Amino acid sequence: MSDVWLVVGLGNPGPGYAGNRHNIGYLVVDELVRRLGTPLRAHKTGRAEVAEARLGTPGSDGPRLVLARPRSYMNEVGGPVKALATFYKIEPSRIVVIHDELDIDFGTLRTKLGGGDNGHNGLKSLRSSFGTGDFYRVRAGIGRPSGRQDVADFVLSDYSGVERKELPFQVDSAADAVESLVLQGLDKTQQKFNS
Q: Per UniProt, where does tRNA bind (predicted)?
């Protein structure tokens, strides 16, 4: 088994979706890429951009990460992620998926291993492709829409002005949570981030 971790940010490709609540996973991968100083490049499997780096100080032999942004729509994300996992010989237990979560208030994070898809099309697609939901999740809260706004419209709408001011802090915390999961494990990460 590989010592590599696959860190997947869920989102929809294209500039029209860039500011959507559904794209928090892309934003967190972008932050990790910035921290590690390795640009995203198209992967030979086709439908993903990846950056490979070691976590820790430059020159250290910390855990190897493959940071990925699938270039498919949310409901088809399982195929590209499964192709990457196969290519790098990574088991689901070494995958961290970053995604938006309706049932958690905006600005709040939760980390966990396994679970259902809770109606999230990206998670549904991943579970279908892997035959299991036993991968790590960094769940970035977006809250539920107020009033009668349709959930699909809500997740595909941009953050509010107030939220946009707070968003960098949430992205930063989610990136910290990913690093903590890989370096310190789930228990310590949950103690720190699932407050």
A: 17, 73, 75, 121
Paired tokens of 98: 């970053």
- What is the pTM (predicted TM-score) of this model? 0.95
Nearest one of 107, 25, 39, 143 to 74, comparing CA atoms: 25
Quick check: 40 and 79 in contact, CB under 8 A? no
Strand order in the sheet with 41-42: 41-42, 48-54, 64-70, 4-9, 95-101, 136-141, 109-113
Radius of gyration of the chain (CA): 15
For the annotated catalytic residues, the residue numbers are: 22
Please give the annotated binding residues for tRNA, written as ranges.
Answer: 17, 73, 75, 121
Domain 4-193 carries which CATH code?
A: 3.40.50.1470
Binding-site residue numbers are 17, 73, 75, 121
User: Are 166 and 100 in contact, with CB atoms under 8 Å apart?
Assistant: no
Cβ distance 122 to 72 under 8 Å?
Answer: no
Task: Give the residues across from 109 on adjacent strands.
Answer: 140
Q: Which two tokens stand for residue 158?
A: 């941009």
Nearest to 52 by CA among 2, 114, 1: 2
Give backbone dihedrals phi and psi of 141, rounded to 5 degrees, phi first: -65, 135
